[in-house]
Each structure stands twice: as structure tokens, then as C-alpha cells.
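Attaching the record inline, Q. Sequence:
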Amino acid sequence: MTDSHSDLHSVTQTEVPSDVATDAQDIIENITYAEMSIGQSARLCRTLTENDIAAFAAVSGDINPAHVDTEYADHTLFHGVIAHGMWGAALISRLLGTVLPGPGTIYLSQTLQFLKPVRIGDELRITATVTAKDDAKRHVLLDCEIKNQTGAVVLTGVATVIAPSEKVRRPRTQLPPLYMPSRHHYTSLLASVAHLPAVRCAVVHPCDAAALRGALDAAKRGLIIPVLIGPEQKIRAVAAEAACDLAGVELIDVPHSHAAAARAVQLAASGNVEMLMKGSLHTDELISAVLAEPALRTKSRLSHVFRLEVPMYDKVLLISDGALHIQPTLDDKVDIIRNAITLAHALGTALPKVAILSAVETVTPKIPSTLDAAALCKMAERGQITGAELDGPLAFDNAISPAAARAKGIVSNVAGHADILIAPDLEAGNLLAKQLEYLAGAAVCGVVLGATVPIALTSRADVAESRTASAALALLLAHSYRQQRP
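Structure, as predicted:
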């Protein structure tokens, strides 16, 4: 092989500053053996994310707790989760296979020394430098090195490859997005209410483990001061079985779920609590009790709003109404939209984009929901609905996909960028939210607006985490309602 010190004057460098720049290129092109020179180098940059670790563990099957178990990793020599060492090796392989030499390269061998741990958030610079060439075999030796943001070398080694002899220029393959379920649902929501004082909350019939744990977790997070209402003996039995501590928690003993709903509503009407939280009873039991109490009614109809964190969508999505209005009228939809806008404002979206859904994006008398959508948009245009941008009818794909909107020739600020989806009826709204939850991995919570107090409302199948997040939504609204009172 040619000596590595004999041609240092012919140094050239190919640098790829970030993954964004790399993946944005339309063409991938190699450097042939004849084009390569001693000292030539290439570099790319990559920041380690939690998803990188999860994806590598899923593909390799390496679930060493040092990489995937935060509680365990915190007590190791490294005091936290670190990347798999071979993840760094994979970055070297990427550099050699796509940049230097690039397509057509055959990997023969690789030595590696792991010098320092790589942690989530580390900004890595991966460099490969040609040190020797063998003209007879077209073998190339490359020094490979990875440094972190401080300049410390975390990995080093030597690669031997057969460099391509022919020029290759190919369209860059577009990989499908990789979905890794987040382990930190509701982080932004909980952070947004962390500064708000807890309010007294009537937890109605928390007689299963998820309902009780959700309420107690919300209390531990400082979201609510719980008042548990239901059969005391049953609640204590559930607490014992689920290892939940009820010390210091107020508990009101009533014989059954109907009585629990009635008592909770009385407390809300008297101002003794500022929010309600559904436990393990049917939705209609709780809502019927609320509707029967004049002191809790407002000019608005009650409606439910789902809040969803959908992994494949770039922002929080609100869906309404998928719980209360079976076949909403035009008047019902006005209040449904206004309530959803109220929640969006409380969540910090000053001018939410509201997509009114139907099966098609054109107005046709054969589909009544398209007529409602057209009327609602005209009402917004005339100032009858304010605080948001409305458009409809829009099919679901046109509402959330800019590409679908462009393909249909829809010119709209809302199409492809919706913050709020208004379903044509309860079935559509409920199915849509639950499909996103169970098939797309969305994190879902929900709340009822339109009463004088917010109601944290979830499905009886929802886990404690979802119930806690619903309490956070209700807390946000409870403080908003305080400011609106005379």
C-alpha cells in the first residue's frame, strides 16, 4: 500500500454538516478509487436522540438496560443512559457507504476502540480519512474517528474497503418515516400547567385501579386536591389492591355511581370544587347529573374535546365532538366549535385552524355535513364564530396533509395544517380519535367544556397517565374560568 505520509499535499475534504443537509440532496454520488487521494477526508454530523437508541435496540435486539432503562442506568458507572457502542460504528458505515467512497464500496474490515460514552443530546462529528491505497486490489485504508461537541474522541478505528472503480450517481432513496412511540407523553401539557396551583376536584366513583391511580397521580403532580366520591369500602379495597395510599385524601361515602354523580354536581354548584373528574362510571351518568343542575349550565351546550399527540403529526391535534353529541345540529356544531376554540386558546394557540370534516371537500346536498360546513364557514366570515380560522368541508386527508390539499387544488390556510378537527357526528369523531390512539400510537386525553366547571372525561379503558393528563386540561380551564368570573 502507498505510505500514508507521501501525498499529504493532496488533501481534500467532503463535509456534510447535518442530517438535514444530507437527506435533502436528491442525488447520491460516489468517489472512485482513481479519484481518491491520501489525506482525503469526509465528515458528517449527527445528534443522538432517545429515538436513535430505541430504534437501534429494536433492530438489534440489544436491550442492555444501560441503554434502555433509565432507572438502572442512573446507578451505573456512566450515571445515565448511553448509546450502544455499535450505533457509533453504524455511523461510520453510513459515511463510508454514502460519501467516501460512497455507493459501490465493499466493506472488508473495521477495528474499533470505544473511548468515551455517548449520551442523548451529544453532537457527534464522524470523520473518515484516507491513509493508504493498494492499486492492485483497489483496497483503501481509512482512519475513522468520532468526536463529541467538546472535541473529545469517543470512538476511533481503521476501516479497510474495496473502493468502487466506476462512477455511480443515483437518486437518493427516500426511506419511510420511522415511528418510535414516545415514553414521555404529555410532557408539554404538564409543563404548561406546572405553575398553576391545584384546585379542588370531585373525582366521581373512582372504583377501579386506573381511575383511582389517575386521580392520585394528578394529586401528586400538584394538579388537583382530590375529593373521592363513591362507595368508601369499595374505593379502599381498590386502593389496597393497587397499592395506592389514601392517607390525607378526602373521601365522601355514597352508595353507588348515580349518587356519586349527584353529590359531585352539588359540590360543584356550591363552589366547593372547581372541576369534576370522571372515574369508573358511564359518561351519561355524570353528564346527565351536570345537565340537571341549573347552576352548572351556561349559554353554551356541553361538548367534549379530545387532545391528541399524534407521532406522525407535527403539532397537538384537537378533535370534537366524539363523546356527547350523537347527531349534532348546526346550532350544536356552533357551540362545539366555540368550545374547541376556547380550549385551543387555553393551550396557547392564539388563532387555531379549524377543519370541518366530511367525506369530501365539495359542498353537495347529498351529504348534509358538507352543507353544515359551508354554513359554519360563512358564519365565521360574518363574525358569528371568532377566534379561529375555519375551512370546510374538508376530507380528513385534506385537513392534515399539505400534499393531499395540493393534489386536490385546495388553497387554504387551514387545509393540511389543522389544529382542530370538527367531526360530522359522534361516531366519526369517536372512531377517528380511537383509531389514532390504537393504530397510530397517539397519546389521548379529553375534557368537557360548556359548564361552569371543566370536566376531565376519559374512556373507562384509559390508563392512569391519560386520566392525569385530562386533569391537567381541566386545571388549565379552571384557572381560565376564574379569570372570566366577574
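The chain has 16 helices and 20 strands. The first strand starts at residue 13 and ends at 16.

More tomorrow.
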